[in-house]
Amino acid sequence: RDRERVIECLAAVAWEANQPLRIETVTVAPPKAHEVRVKIHSTGVCHTDASTLWGRDPEGPGGLFPTILGHEGAGVVESVGDGVTNVKPGDHVIPLWLPQCGRCRACGKTNLCENVWKMMGKGCLLDGTSRFACGGRTLYHYMGTSTFSGYTVLPDVSVVKVGAVFCPGFALDIVSDALPISPSARLDRACLLGCGIPTGYGSALNTAKVVEGSSVAVWGLGTIGLAAVMGARKAKAKRIIGVDINPNKFQIGKKFGCTEFVNPNDHGDRPIQDVLADMTDGGLDFTFECIGNIHTMASLPRRRAALESLQKGWGVSTIVGVAGRGLEVSFPPFQLLLGRKWTGSFFGDYRGDDLPGLVEEYLKGELMVDEFVTQELQLDDINKAFDSLREGRGLRSVVTF
Ligand code: APR
Ligand code: ZN
Ligand code: ZN
After folding, report:
1. Closest by alpha carbon to 99, among 83, 85, 119, 81?
2. Ligand 1 pocket test: which of 203, 224, 291 has the largest number of ligand atoms within 8 Å of its C-beta?
């Protein structure tokens, strides 16, 4: 029976930190109860994959190796274990690195499930074991997704079915090794809804809840920041100021909804919060830090950019970028005493159940996704995606299997 078969496929294996990924033939064991085996069609490469590979995880011991990285993928269910009811073979799915069990105290309030969280950091599935092996060695899972593999195994709560209802082309082709996945499915675009785009988009719409007519500033016009800009535009913000030290980002910023730009380097030693206060009659309604830099968040004296740029009384600043391990921010509490609000957003406050709606928005042309793809690669060239991240070139790289 299909679902009991061990599959051999190609995967990009991270044998150790700070070494290029190596393309290897790996074995992928069948799914156990409440697990799903997915044939990955494509995957984006996110900064978090790079942080782990480069030994800079913001939390924990700094990554478990050898492992198969990747958490921004899309694919098709190949087989399911006992008790799986949410998907069946042939379904198009997006793997979730932040799934919800739906039963715990946290799932009732947030997307930060207490149960599935525990497994992610341990590099294994919920039963504490791995389905991956290569050359006699067991490989760790990564973020519960490991999308840099031709096939991966996930808990059933970690896959969300997309497309079937909203886009017939997505779900019609039946998948087996003999039948390639239909290229019309555009899973090589939908994969980006697995991490970067919702992270920024939802920070504006769900976390900060940007309101119509408001003024917004976004620090860092990478994938995350541009998606936040897009969210602010969706919420009908009146002014959306992009703040970036790379003037080449201004062109693309406009495409996503920026109405103005500020390059801190054009203002010498003048604190950027003062520049913005002048532009906005005292401060902004909403700011977003999408770089992961503690100085633009709040910290360096005279450069407490995103927090201090807020209008006192009601401004809301949201941290979206991930700062490096061990770093801390400090600021005078008076900033908050005056009613500025400071918060953070994780995966844009989206839950897995929200993703089909985002796919629908994309298919209706209301959510830009294609525009984020600046490099398309085959698996063999996956290390080029990491080079691009290191050099700060482009937005997202999509790797297709
Ligand atoms: N001031 C303003 N802009 C800056 C600064 C700075 N001090 N430093 C960097 N930038 C700009 C860069 O020029 C770039 O345009 O921030 C942008 C960052 O974009 P990317 O590197 O493409 O990052 P992105 O993928 O959007 O992720 C941003 O979110 O997921 C996290 O770990 C990720 O913390 C990172 C952040
Ligand atoms: Zn990510
Ligand atoms: Zn839960």
Report:
1. 119
2. 291
Rounded Cα distance between 227 and 221, Å, is 9
Q: Tell me if 94 sits within 8 A of 101, measured CB to CB.
A: no
Give the distance from CA 179 to its chain's centroid. Answer: 30
Which domains are delineated in the chain? 2-194+368-400 (3.90.180.10), 200-346 (3.40.50.720)
Cβ atoms of 17 and 62 within 8 Å: the answer is yes
Please state the ipTM of this predicted complex.
0.98
Residue 350 pLDDT > 50: yes
Following DSSP, what letter does each residue of 166-217 receive, concatenated?
T-HHHH-S--BTTBPPPGGG-HHHHGGGGTHHHHHHHIIIIIS---TT-EEE
How far apart, in whole angstroms, are the C-alpha atoms of residue 43 and residue 59?
23
Task: Please state, in angstroms and rounded to a whole number, the distance separating the CA atoms of residues 148 and 401.
Answer: 9
Q: What is the pLDDT of residue 299?
A: 55
Segment among 53-57, 164-168, 309-313, 348-352 with least mean pLDDT:
164-168
- Pull the structure tokens for residue 27: 């074995």
Q: Chain centroid to CA 120: how far?
A: 15
Residue 205 near residue 198 (C-beta atoms within 8 A) = no
Place of tokens 């790996």: 26
Spacing, Cα 350 to ligand 3 middle (Å) = 14
**Whether pLDDT at 182 is above 70:** no
- Pairing state of beta strands 137-139 and 132-134? antiparallel
Contact residues for 390 (Cβ-Cβ < 8 A; gap 6+): 50
> Cis (ω within 30 of 0) for the bond into 301?
no
In the reported structure, the alpha carbon of residue 47 is separated from the centroid of ligand 2 by a whole-number distance in angstroms of: 6
CA of 281 to the centre of ligand 2 (A): 36
Assess whether the previous peptide bond of 99 is cis (omega < 30° from 0).
no
**Tokens 């830090």 belong to which residue?**
289
Instruction: Note whether 243 and 305 are within 8 A (CB).
Output: yes
**Percent of the chain surpassing pLDDT 90:** 74
Chain centroid to Cα 30, Å, comes to 27
Residue 61 carries which side chain, given as an amino acid letter?
A: P
